[in-house]
Design goal:
88 residues, mainly alpha, elongated, 81% helix
Length: 88
């Protein structure tokens, strides 16, 4: 019975090691995701333009938001047009 009490009182270190491995893997995946998420390309910007266009056509934005959305949309459109001209 003394052996049972001693075993129950000792912490389970094997789970701790597994938890440390899980934490390390999560951190590595987070770093990879962070690196991937900072990559922004022309296709992403075209996608954003399409999203704004669809959202506005579906009435997603309130009237008081339309001016700001329109300004950003125009900046994005002009930027994409200039990039396309440079590519040609």
């Amino acid at each position: 019975m003394t052996d049972e009490v001693t075993q129950n009182e000792m912490p389970d270190l094997s789970g701790l090691n597994q938890q440390q491995q899980v934490n390390q893997q999560s951190q590595q995946q987070g770093q990879q995701t962070q690196q991937e998420s900072t990559d922004l390309n022309i296709n992403d910007l075209n996608g954003m333009k399409t999203i704004i266009d669809l959202a506005s056509s579906r009435g997603t934005f309130k009237p008081n938001e339309m001016m700001a959305v329109g300004q950003i949309y125009m900046k994005l459109s002009n930027f994409l047009a200039s990039v396309q001209k440079q590519g040609n």
